Amino acid sequence: MHLLHRGQAPQKPLLLRPLFGGVQRIGMRSESTTTLRDAGRNKPGPVMPGVQMVMAVEVLRVLPDGSARYRFTLEEVDLLVAARTPVRTVESARAQLSPLPGLKGEGQVAPNGRSSGFEWKLPAELSAPVRGQMQQLAGLLKDLGTFLPAEPVGLGARWEQNGAGSGALTGATTRVELRTLEGQSVGLRLQMETPRTPQPVPASLRPPPGTPGETTMHTEARGHGGCMLSLDRLWPVRLELDVESHAAVRAGTKDAPKRFDGFTTTRLQVRELSFTPPRLRAARTV
Q1: Which structural domains are found in the chain, ordered by start?
Q2: Biased composition, Pro residues: where in the chain (predicted)?
Q3: pTM
Q4: Measured between alpha carbons, how far is 209 from 74 in angstroms, rounded to an integer?
Q5: What DSSP assignment string belongs to 135-201?
């Protein structure tokens, strides 16, 4: 993490102080659209349903150094179905998601928001595509709280973090600005960007054997949004992030080039649905 500007006075450290036994319920929605460009002509990409989830996070213990160990439970998973989505696609996706409710995992977060691990045991019957998506989600959940600086800051502070992110934003540079600071509430503006990165070319996009020229593929992505944190919670109270990613495949020869591009726009929304403090939770169980 690199501090670019300390911001206005007064300045104070931004440290998570989660409450032992507190339970935070989070709703998450993820939707995306894809446009394909082949030989200069645009066409809509495959229509895939979005996903919405409800998750519960319980603080299991707070260690002497302030780190918190937590348990994650995936309570609900459902699809956000667009009007043009084929019925078979919806049915297949719902069938693949059916083993997920009840999934549990554990992780640990330091006072500065850095995660020292997030692990869950995925059901053996998960299909390969869903397993890959859930592994990406694990990376996202691990990084949700890593926006805090290591030094005291005030309003208007800006800092930068390299190598964070997951999925399309893997390895991104994240630039953060402190927009609001009131009591336990912290408002951040986020900007993320990945460099142009070479990728393995999928078999479906490779030319037939013997075709002259070289085939290459590069990806890049940008994201922007905002995040509202409460320092007595582990995960954001609210987060919105829009990500635009670009995959470029180049093939053929200099005299007869071939170009194929895929543009994907993804919107991620996170909302706190409820928070049960330890005292209230204990009273309910008496």
Answers
A1: 2-279 (2.30.230)
A2: 197-211
A3: 0.82
A4: 45
A5: HHHHHHHHHTTTT--SS-B-TT-EEEEEEE--GGGTTEEEEEEEEEEETTEEEEEEEEE---EE-PP
Residue carrying structure tokens 């998450």:
28
Token pair of 285 as six digits: 């169980």
Distance CA 217, CA 248 (A): 6
Residue 267: closest CA among 244, 246, 245, 242: 242
List beta partners, residue 37.
Answer: 42, 261
